[in-house]
Write a structure and sequence with these properties.
The chain is of the alpha/beta class. Helices cover about 50% and strands about 20% of the residues. The chain has eleven helices and eleven strands. Helix 2 (about 30-40) runs parallel beside helix 4 (about 60-70) and helix 10 packs antiparallel against helix 11 (about 250-275). The mean pLDDT is about 95. The chain binds 1,3-dihydroxyacetonephosphate (13P). 1,3-dihydroxyacetonephosphate binds next to strand 3, strand 11 and helix 10.
């Protein structure tokens, strides 16, 4: 197993039996707001970006931006690539020095998922970078990855997947969805509990919209990396929509500060629940 920030953050979370927020960011304001939220309450954080965000800004620019934001902080901040299906893009992030990559070949048949993920695990590990893999189908929309129907992962197959790929974190589909939930999702807590007993950290995708109680239960059972994306986008857009109607704010810096504060508060509420500091978001 490689030793790096991503692994260290998840190992520490496991020792403390807490969850780490893995927050999707898409620009400087959201990245800085997420790290500020974590630093304010003294918890480590994983900053992640979609493959589309990397294509938009470039792997080197994003790496430099996060390196600058995390400099001098009193918490650990790891940089992670989320849901990547393009091997060349994954390898580029590895070469540039990102801490970890998630290669998502969960849409392929089992054997193909194993071999593609294994190939990327070898590449990443040889360069000191960690890797997350996915099995089953997480419903919803995550940029250009769209799935109408969830297919929960199966325990035996997931164990085989972990052993054969030698990944550092496992994202099993458990009934969560990317985006906004239409009702209360039915989750496979048993699978999280079974996998939580193993040595490979369990990743929970589709965090936005789950209740604090559900997060607590998932973390108690072994969920360690908790992915949050839609919450960040919504907090960002909602504040911008409010501000454009407010004629008193006419300086870009004041505007950005307000947006940053709103994003940071939304994230902080979740990080407090993940780390067991509070029982509900912002309460
Ligand atoms: P949400 O957009 O539902 O928070 O999901 C985030 C996620 O799982 C990113 O991989």
């Amino acid at each position: 197993m490689v030793e790096n920030r991503f692994i260290k953050i998840l190992q520490q979370a496991d020792e403390k039996k807490i969850g780490v927020g893995a927050i999707n960011i898409f620009n400087y304001i959201t990245a800085d707001a997420a790290v500020n939220a974590a630093e304010e309450i003294g918890v480590n954080i994983i900053i992640q970006t979609s493959a589309g965000t990397v294509e938009h800004y470039g792997a080197i620019k994003l790496y430099n931006m996060i390196n600058d934001i995390r400099k001098g902080r009193n918490i650990e901040v790891a940089l992670h690539l989320d849901h990547c299906r393009d091997m060349e893009l994954g390898k580029l992030c590895v070469d540039v020095g990102w801490d970890s990559i998630m290669m998502d070949f969960s849409h392929l048949p089992f054997e193909e998922n194993v071999s593609a993920t294994r190939e990327m695990a070898i590449y990443a590990h040889e360069r000191g970078v960690a890797i997350e893999g996915e099995i089953g189908v997480v419903a919803g929309v995550e940029e250009d990855i769209v799935a109408d129907e969830a297919i929960n992962a199966n325990y035996e197959e997931t164990i085989q997947f972990i052993e054969r790929t030698e990944i550092d974190a496992i994202a099993p589909a458990i009934g969560t969805a990317h985006g906004v939930y239409k009702g209360v999702p039915e989750l496979n807590f048993t699978l999280v509990e079974q996998l939580g007993k193993g040595n490979t950290p369990v990743v929970i995708h589709g965090g936005t919209g789950l209740s604090a109680d559900v997060f607590r239960k998932l973390i108690e059972l072994g969920g360690r990396k908790i992915n949050i994306s839609t919450l960040v986008k919504n907090a960002y857009m909602k504040k911008i929509m409010q501000l454009v109607k407010n004629e008193n704010i006419n300086s870009p810096i004041s505007f950005d500060k307000e947006v940053s504060k709103a994003v940071s508060e939304a994230i902080r509420g979740h990080l407090e629940v993940f780390s067991g500091m509070k029982h509900d978001f912002g309460v």
